[in-house]
Amino acid sequence: MYLHLPLLLFLLAHATQSEANVLARSSESIVRVATRAHRRAVKGSAGLARDLRLSFRGILADTQQPAAISNSRIYCVSSSGFSSGGNGSEIANGGTTSVGFEPISTNVPFSGSSSGSSASSTSKLTGTTGTGTATGSGSKPTSSAGATSSPWKIVQSYQGSSFFNGWDFFTESDPTHGTVNYVDQNTAQSANLTSINGAGHAIMSVETTPTVASVRQSVRITTQFTYTGGLVIMDSVHMPTGCGTWPAFWSNGPNWPAGGEIDIVEGVNDYTNNQATIHTNPGCSMPSSSSSALNITGDVVSTTDCAAAETGNAGCGIRSADTKSYGATFNSNNGGVYAMMWTNDGISVYFFERNSIPSDITNNAPLPDGWGQPMAFWPASTCSPFQFFNSHSAIFDTTLCGDWASGVWGSAGVPGQAQSCAQITGVPTCQQFVQQNGAAFAQAYWEVKYVQIYQTS
Ligand SMILES: *[C@@H]1O[C@H](CO)[C@@H](O)[C@H](O)[C@H]1NC(C)=O
Ligand SMILES: *[C@@H]1O[C@H](CO)[C@@H](O)[C@H](O)[C@H]1NC(C)=O
Ligand SMILES: *[C@@H]1O[C@H](CO)[C@@H](O)[C@H](O)[C@H]1NC(C)=O
């Protein structure tokens, strides 16, 4: 296994003392530690993306200047006046948001400069403030007065022909060791890996060249905008699926796992049930592994200790019970809406199939109190949401193989995966299959209607 220098430096910088000693001993040990870190670990490192970007800013060729000036807007709308499609005043694009829930570690090193050169281009755009600032209330929003009044206001929206404005294209080696090469925005556009289709939906696909010698081109994008607390809503009509795929829609904060990681949509191969997972510093756990005690529709599938360092990075994973929440069945049902809510009560993830999306969501005035049980919930009682999580960016990626999809290539038994991919494809390794079967990745694409980030004010 090949570990590049930045990854090694990252591991050293973030390892616990004992791991650091191991790391220092030999490169073979480094590989073992990295492998143990397994799928979740290093992926978890949004961390990694941002840390590398910062640590190596001096030597990174920062070529991912957005092709067009961003038209994305951040809206600050007065609570009483907000309604579907309401207009607000544009503040800035790509700023860092610190929400006033709790006065902890909001002064992250990324404030006001979440994306290097892109940030300056966006402040040139607005000619006003260079940093988006939104504020949030400290308590769980409840609908007041009118039953249709939502406490949640859109602060950032990615949709339509300007969907890709306001995202950074990650171009480092895949931290999860996938058989991919993450390309920059210009390359992605020329290779038609990103586009906006006739319906106005954003497409993110992978290279389908019949045979490749090593890796396939893919994309991994990160919002320049960051948020601490909020409600993230993502509507997708199609997601990558099939043997060899490992897509995710997720978020993380700085200095992984200190800033926390929230995996909203994730799975591998032919899975049909989504898994949502959090990864944190030590001290965050779940009070129970019982669905009824947690008041969730999903099932806890891993440890109740969410600390990356204490669990081999397994984190606290919860699998949806909905067989149309991920993969081919999600796609044949025209997908649906995922919502991640992060408040003083905790962090929760909801999924709504296409035909049961609440009207308050489609009306851009979400009322989570009426949504019923979430598929996943990590209560604040045992995991302080503003101690273990801060300054998140939302991320889409599609990797191929990598630690997770390769690791379970020969395994079956998870919903959707009655037979293993090794059995289905007749190919012994994920990497070999990916390299030699480009046509198999025609369904390995995201088709996203929108991503919206809401906060209370
Ligand atoms: C926002 O305001 C502009 C200019 O007044 C108007 O043209 C547009 O229709 C408004 N959009 C919405 C969604 O109300
Ligand atoms: C580019 O990709 C889109 C979406 O996958 C597809 O509909 C379109 O035909 C592609 N265009 C070309 C020129 O290949
Ligand atoms: C469980 O969640 C539902 C839906 O949010 C709520 O109505 C109910 O009161 C909750 N039950 C408990 C025991 O918390």
UniProtKB/TrEMBL annotation:
GO terms for molecular function: hydrolase activity, hydrolyzing O-glycosyl compounds. Residues 1-20 form the signal peptide. Residues 143-413 form the GH16 domain. SUPFAM superfamilies: Concanavalin A-like lectins/glucanases. Residues 110-150 are annotated as: Disordered. One of its GO terms (biological process) is glucan catabolic process. Keywords: Glycosidase, Hydrolase, Signal. It comes from the Eukaryota. Residues 111-128, 136-150 have a biased composition (Low complexity). Belongs to the glycosyl hydrolase 16 family. This is GH16 domain-containing protein. It comes from Hermanssonia centrifuga.
